[in-house]
Amino acid sequence: MPLVDMKDMLEHAHRHRYAIGAFDLVSLDFLDAIVAATEARRAPVILSLAESHFEYYDFELAMAATVTAARRATVPVAIHLDHGASFGSAVRAINLGCNGVMVDASHLPLAGNIDTTRAVTDMAHACGVPVEGELGYVAGVEGEDAEKHPARSCIPQWRKRVPTSSVPASTFLRFPSARCTAACAAHPGSTSSGWRISTPASASLSWSTAAPAWRRAIPRLVAHGVAKINYYTALADAAGDCIRANAARDTRAGYSGLMRGVRATIQAEVERVIGLFGGAGQAPAVLAACRRVAPVAHVILYNVQAPMLLPWCA
């Protein structure tokens, strides 16, 4: 079962200057295609489930399928909650098998964001789970359903003036909270906005995620230490194009007819970008370098007063 520690996985990618794809999935078609692509390219992968997509599937059922896929895989896998909206979301995700969580409190003022992220981090680290935080919103549009992310659904005026690119990551990372921020990972969506990313090496990188410009920027991002690239919108677009083409060929097609070729289309796109990220062929080295994650039951208690514990001590 190559479910591996996500922190170890990302540190290996950072040391060896490649990036791991964190591919959001919204159905079994996506799950099967992503795993098949990583197996074909012998690459490590982060299977990502975004809370903004939960209206499309039952999270508990999707997690059961994702954990099963990870156990069957022969490449290193991590399972990640993307854009978790609350402390409770992180607790639930860890209990269901996520070994990485993102808390998106970027809709709050910076101090509130830090406090929320710290609370999630204290809980998650006690379970051996790394945490990703969101320092600020990504200018432009992050992609399909991005408006449902916390920072998109409720952006106060100060947030409109303070995108991720203008807040030093050191302001966030000097607190004992997240291991990484969304500013240190790439979110290539449907934006044409330019970014300026400050890296730990004090270098700055200006780039645009407008296709194909962001693809040309990937080698520079990786060279500056980006080890995780979130990737969903292009997969959804490719799947949508395939479905529309099926519908045009056969206006009476049923569900199976409309979905014909979708998995292969998604797989081809995932394989393509794995090559772009530099992760192809890294699976054996990651398996050798990373700790395995064993299934455990996490008991997470919070806001519990001492007298409430007395019956359990009897």
Structure notes:
The chain has 14 helices and nine strands. It is of the alpha/beta class and 314 residues long. It has a single domain, classed as TIM Barrel, CATH 3.20.20.70. A seven-stranded parallel sheet has the order 6-5-4-3-2-1-9, sandwiched between helices. Helix 4 runs parallel beside helix 5 (110-126). Mean pLDDT is 79; it is low at 151-166, 174-178, 181-186, 189-210 and 308-314.
What layout of secondary structure does this protein have?
Layout (H helix, E strand, L loop, with lengths): L5 H10 L4 E5 L3 H14 L3 E6 L8 H14 L4 E8 L2 H10 L3 E4 L6 H17 L4 E3 L16 H4 L3 H5 L7 H5 L6 E2 L12 E5 L5 E5 L4 H11 L4 E4 L1 H17 L5 H4 L3 H16 L5 H7 L16 H8 L1
Parallel strand pairs: 1-2, 1-9, 2-3, 3-4, 4-5, 5-6
Antiparallel strand pairs: 7-8
Helix pairs in contact: 2-3, 2-12, 4-5, 10-12
